[in-house]
Structure formats: C-alpha cells, structure tokens
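Side project, low priority. Logging it here so it doesn't get lost.
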Amino acid sequence: MEQESEYSVLLVEDEPDAAKLVQYILSKGSAPRLAIDWTPDLHSGLERLAARDFDAVLLDLNLPDSTGFDTFARVRQQTAEGAVIVLTSQEDEALALQAVRSGADEYLIKSDIRDRYLAQRIRYAIERKRLSRQTAMTPVHKGKIFGFIGAKGGVGTTTLVLNLAAALAKAGESVMAVELIPDYGSFAAHLRRTPLWNSSTLLKTAADAITREQLESCLADVGCGFRALFGPQRPEDYSDLTPEHARAVLRNAATLADFTLVDLPASFAPYTTEVVLHAAFMTLVMERDWLGLHSGLAKLPLLKSAGARDSAFAIALVNKTPHVEMLPEPEFARQLGCGVLAAIPAAGDLLAANYGPEPVVLNRPDAAYSECIYEMANRFSADPVRLLRF
C-alpha cells in the first residue's frame, strides 16, 4: 500500500479525454495526494489489480471489453480491500445504484467530474472503506435504543436529544444520535455542521443490504463526545423512509453505541412503529400547558397502538414560556396515565444565545436547564429508567 501521504488510485476509463480530465483535476488537490494509474479496458485493469493493491478504483462500467453490472462485479471480486467508485452517465444512474447495493463504495456521475470536490469524495470513499474493515474486526455489542417524539411540532425534541446525547457522552457512555426523518433534518443547523454524508446515502441501498459498516461510514463525529446520523439536507435527497429501512438502521445502530437516541418527527409515520418496537424506552416530549396536554392526549393512542409499553414509556415536560401558568406535573401523569421523566425549565434566552456548535449542556453546565438534562441522563443510565416521584 502507499504511505498515508499518498493514495493510489486505478482509473479504468476508455475515453482518453475523460481520463486526462480526471487526472488533471486530481493533480490539483491537497494532501493526501492521489496518485493515478490509468488503464483503458477491463482486462488490463484486472491485471493491474492482480499485480498490486490500490486504495481505490475509479471504474467506468461501459468499457470496450465489458459493459454494465458485470464490469463492477469482476472488479469487486478482484479487489476486496480497496474502495470501488463507479463512474456512470446520468441515464445509467439506476445501474450505478445497483452497484452500490451490491458493494460499490460510491458512484459519480460523469457530468460532475468537473466538480472541485471530486478528490474529496474519493478520499472519503477510501477512508470509509478503511473504517468498514476496522469495524468488521471490532466486537459487536448490544446497546439500547431510546426514541423521542414530540406531541406536536416545535416542542424542542431535537434540542433535547442533542443535549441529552452530549450529557450521556460526558458521563462516559458511547452515544449516537440518529435523525430518522425522510426530508430536511435540522441536526446540521443545531450543531452548525455541514455533514458530508447523511441518512439519504443509506436510503439508496436496499434495506436488507445495509450493514453496520455502511451505517458507521455515514456517522459524523460532531465534536461533542457523540456521533450523529444527520437527516437529508437537500431536496434532491428527500425520499420515503420505509419501515424496512428504519429497522435496518436501528438494528445496526444498536451494535455501534451503548445509547442510540432517535429523534423522530412529530408526524406519525409507518416507520415510527419500528422505533417504538425496537426502543428500550420511548419519550413523548410535550409542552407544560393546556395545549401540550391536549396534543399529548392525541398522540398517546398512536404510540400505544404502535406497541409502546407502560413500563418503557414516559413524558418529558418542556417549559418554553416562563411567564405562562404551567400545569403541575402530577396532573399530566394523571390525565395521560403514565410517568414523568423530566420537567425541563424554560431556557429560551439561553438556547437562543448559544451561538457555538456545542449543545448548551457543554457551554453552560451550571444553568438550571443543563442540570435538568444531566439528571435526565442519570435517569436513562439506570435500569430500569427512573422516573420523577410525586
């Protein structure tokens, strides 16, 4: 293998002009440098792969001596450790997706070759492949999944999930936060991050083909002690999130962290049931006023019908408006017939002023809001989860 300062890439492309363009673009990239070896057909490409190892193969699927999916299959068989990146035209994108579902590490549309991020995408494909090999050799453990859903939109479920993830991580737990949503995800805005990969990458793969290695390659270390799977960021990445895909994500997530916190949209979807069934504990987040109570009463039957168990379900009360008369916690417990996990104090000004990428619990650990979140983390760490007593 090449040294860390240089990645070796085999380009299998029959069009000389296209090959020269790729070589030119990659020659202008920053370290680690990409050293390109070009061959115009599959036969000579397989010979190169037999003679030496490459960190990555850039592969045109339509070559003079091979076309279509068979081209990928023969290269994938020849190189088990290197990343295979498929080059395809816009009209052959379905073929490229088939290759991804069968083990390709990335695909690139040829019209995007002029993209200045070409080198970056190749480097990340190489690193994801290396990470997947390392992950395959690490022991598999079974962590717990905790689901969070708002009684209605705008109650602050995402803020709660991210702060709780940071609090659990600070206590020494391995933590993953998952934004399980079919369209725009707000983890990126909350954490001031622009993720290179998100859940839409997984949705391009058949549900039964998603592996823990693929999931881990899509996780981002957000610098707060935990990793996160971001939701889609661009309209073109939005797609239906099926129960089968949700099941695959949850199944693999449980093998990668002690605690997986799943942030669900308030709207109830078929895949929500998968989270309810897989979760060790479900939390319904609601505002501590009459509107919150009524929205909670409306959402509760849906969660119950999805399989939420009385012993593994509670509510978290959020006070978003400090000067509005709040209902007492026991009243919520009585009317909903379930326990209360936390009564989170108002922190609107504190959250609005938190301009940094870190959650409030890390920036202002002494605030009443943060103290409540840390106490909530302690309750989640107990087995069974401890609830408030009245």
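Brief comment: The CA atoms of residues 151 and 299 lie 6 Å apart.
Revisit when time allows.
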